[in-house]
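Work package 3, deliverable 3.1, input record:
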Amino acid sequence: MTAVASSIPPQWYLLLATAVFCIGLFGVLTRRDALYFLMSVELMMNAANINFVAFALYYGDLTGQVFALFVIALAAAEVAIGIGIILVLYRNFGVTDVTVPTEMRW
Amino acid sequence: MIDVFSYVPAIVLLPFFSFLVALSVGKYLPKGGAFGGIAATAGSFLLSLWVLASVAGGEAANRTLYTWASGGGIGPTDVELSFGILIDPLSALMLVIVTLVALLVHVFSLGYMNDEGETGLPRYYAGLGLFTASMLGFVVADNLLMAFMFFELVGLCSYLLIGFHFREPGPPSAAKKAFLVTRFGDYFFLIGVVAVLATFGTAQFGGPESFPALAEAALAGEGSLAWTPGGVGVQTWFTVVGLLVLGGVVGKSAQFPLHTWLPDAMEGPTPVSALIHAATMVAAGVYLVARMYGFYALTPTTLAVIAFIGGFTALFAATMGLVKDELKQVLAYSTISQYGYMMLALGSGGYVAAVFHLTTHAFFKALLFLGAGAVIIAMHHNENMWDMGGLKSKMPVTYYTFLAGSLALAGIFPFAGFWSKDEILYEALVHAPGEPLLFGGYLMGLLAVPVTAFYTFRMVFLTFHGEARSDTARDPEPVRWNVKGPLTVLGSLAVVTGFINMVPVQKVLGLEGIDFLHLWLDNEWGGIEGLSSHHYGDIGPYSSQYLVGGEVGTVLAGAAVSLGLALAGLGVAWRLYNVPSPTEHTAKLGGIKDVLYNNYYLDELQVWLAYRTEDVAGGANTFDQGIIDGVVNGVSSVSLFGGSRVRRLQNGVVSQYAMLLTLGLVALILVLGLTEGGFL
């Protein structure tokens, strides 16, 4: 397993992470539903995680893996707050579409 | 070190506290806070007497109490701006005069304001307190900047007090006029103060590091100045500085052409007029010249200008006093004229004579104004002399004290004014040969003598002699002790003050040591080095030349001529107006009368000049509105327009924010990549 993983050059991991990040970014920019937003942000974070873990493996240093764990914990907290925001959004506007509430403008 | 001079600030602060008390709780106090003012000025008077006694005992003080700013000036010297006290024979004498007159004016106000049922008394007594405090601060000032500050405060107080009856149309207008006209002069004074600070790096009056001492050293070729404008000789520059400071003096001391405020200032309550004319505001200008005489003595041109302005004002104002119908108007013009004499004395090197006349005038003019106040009370505030007459028998105390003051004003032997006026004319005469401006000043001063005597006694005869010409004059309102008391004190002083300086007697009889004021101002009993009349005489440009019969002959001739002229003026007034029912003789003057009555149309001229400045002001207005405001408004409208467009970006759609963030980041990365981070 380890042998297989370390035999893959790091640029492939970077390409994978970039692809996952762009999918997440695309979701954020195009979707209108707040729940999709959350999922897309989750994808972007996991793209970062892939980089952490890949370079941890590459350098044989555990720091990157520890950071990945931190990011997972952070993502959990973020989802908790995000869901809360979406609930409030739904309660006030009856939708989870982010383009509907535009009160906070000039 | 605690000594008598440690209490000098208290002399200034006591009336200031009475100002605060009258202002804050005056309406709860009996008599509207009058007693606080009386107690404060009495305290200041006693302290001043103590200071005078200490100076007579050989002490003097030149102390800096508080430095409120220091730093680099123009050139290498550091400039320190400070408050301090300078107590020498001159300022000690002035302290006593100011506090005494202020005290008597406060007492008199009990009769003039309280007994007459005026309203707003706390405001009145607050004004008097601040006025007195400002003048005292000006008198003890040890440097020109501090003097300027208190000079301005004096101007402010005159504004407040002249406009005391602000509900009537006249007083506020007169107050504004007094404020603006004196401020016009003070503008030059302020430039002069800056010029002195820039030139010498100090504005101290006394001591080896004072600006008169530095100026003297610079003219002698020793020492150096911090700064002089390029290409201008030192002597010329000193003349310019002297003339600039003189601007303030001309404004405050009501000299031609800035005298027009003073007759209008008669709109103020009469005790205030007494204070303004005798001890505070108008005296400030002459005192300032005397205070920095060590500087003026170095600039012959300035002295000649001072002498000429003084002599001209003396005659000019006296002629206008000839035709006035109102008691206080006559006195107002006499004040302008008498301060003209003082300026003539200062300009002709008669430093002692000027201070002497300042002293005697303070007493007899305060007396005359308070006497006029008593008459005005009696006449139910009718000031027209043609409605008076015959008051002599009904108010004898006022009559005899007023008569003493009038004899002093007219310069009749042996009253106070005779001695001082005679000395002024003598000083001008012996220094005049070879100095055309000075000689002109002397001639006009001499011509003013009979005119003064004439208008003074025209006033006395119209007011007190003859038959009563109105019902109020037949049954005048009686005045109380608080009017008669101050009159009696001042009446006595008007008789005896002249004896402090009997120079003619000394010179004729050869008695030594009876010219006390000369010895006093010459630091005979102590003083500050460099601030003595002897020193001023040494550095001054004049030398004495006696005309006939040497010194004694000139003294006698001068005294005889001025006394003869005064008696002639008095005699004419006697012939014309000391009759049971006098008539107006002014009609015989024809067109001249109108010119005199309208003050040579100078008010009109000044108004005309003021309107000419409208064109300049209009141009400045266009420039200000169009260009200055245009730039400011242009900048703001660009910001407003830009803001109103840019804020559309914030449309509340989260997706677009995310889009902008992303695009921004991409753009940043692209730029960084393309320039290889070159701009970081």
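DSSP finds four helices and no strands in chain A.
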